[in-house]
Amino acid sequence: MRLAYQYRLRPRASQVQDLNRWLDMLRSQYNWLLAERFDWWELNRCPVNACPLTSSIAPPKEQPDYYSQKRSLVTLKKERSGYKEIHSQVLQDMVKRVGLAFDRYLKGDSKGKRSGKPRFKGKGRYHSFTYTQADNDWIVGNLVNLPKLGSIKLIQHRPLPEGFDVKTACISKKADGWYITFSLLDESVPTINPDIDVKKGVGIDLGLKDFLVTGDGLHVPIPQYYRKAEKRLAKEERKLARKKNKASKRRAKRVCKVAKLHAKVANQRKDFHHKTAVLLLRKYEVIAHENLNIKGLARTHLAKSVHDAGWGTFITILANKAEKAGCLTIGVNPSGTTQMCSDCDAHVAKTLSDRRHCCPHCGLELDRDENSGRNMWKRAEGHPVLKARGVRSTSWTVKREAHPIPLCG
């Protein structure tokens, strides 16, 4: 199992200068190598039996790849001695990023989905670098020893888990400071618990009135952090818009302040997602959720509220935490789950303003989102993983209990 632990760094002023210089040098070389790939592509993208409009009489160049561009780092260090200060693993990882960005543009990822055309990184647009071979011994007390950078103060708010080995270390620059992310690995930890109790399962319905409602009646209110910070953000962005000189220090301070406000909203939302995921996984071992078309919903008049809720991020966090806990999350098709009665499967038409489910056939009355959560779980019971554990019934088996939201995750 792989984990990622992130800690805050407190570098000295001289170390901040070194970190910023490294990022700027890596950005410059990233742009150079990306331009080299684009130059080759413009001259060689036509088939062999066709002549490109933009052609050269020069002999064709060898296609640049990860290995050829990595070999060019030797010449780079000879011609520009400043790059000798940067650790070799950091430079090689930068070359790898160029290759990944270009390959995803031409070939796509493992699922065949292609990314957009890679962009050249402007000043301040290159935010991180990675040591690809880190070690547990790098952390000594409240310090982390980074090769060619020295010892930097580390705010270790939680210890690294026992049995896990540190594999990589990524140093990133954010609006509110510097951070280091350790990638940990322990191959002895299983990903899914073979003894999952399917009776401890539930379906959840995501929404904008409540963030989520479970099939057994737990309502988690939606915090709307962006909505609450909207007035202050608008005020600071108006002040930023008045700074016309893009090279002035005052404008740079305003940019930093607006970025910190946005970072605070994002951190609040992320913290809420983590705590809500922990709340669910402490009680349930199988969680069925909706496979929502979030991109489509984000193009409607509800776009701001959809982005503020962050359903996609929450589902990803929930799936990752479930894997660590040996639990299971199942995505189901939400079509018709609101209109169908969870007791007798009858179709009960509702409008968006109807917040109660009242079935005229069986007499079931409950919250419409709770009814939808029950239907989610009924559909999840047909999942192959659950069928392998002997589940065949589609009856509602989760008992109704009250579970207040804890103050901490």
Automatic annotation (TrEMBL):
Protein name: Transposase, IS605 OrfB family
Keyword Metal-binding: yes
Residues of the signal peptide: none
GO molecular function, one term: metal ion binding
Cas12f1-like TNB domain residues: 311-375
Coiled-coil region(s): 226-253
Domain of life: Bacteria
Protein's organism: Gloeobacter kilaueensis (strain ATCC BAA-2537 / CCAP 1431/1 / ULC 316 / JS1)
Alphabetical list of NCBIfam families matching this protein: guided_TnpB
Family, as annotated: In the C-terminal section; belongs to the transposase 35 family.
A Pfam family matched in the record: Cas12f1-like_TNB
InterPro entries: Cas12f1-like_TNB, Transposase, Transposase_put_HTH
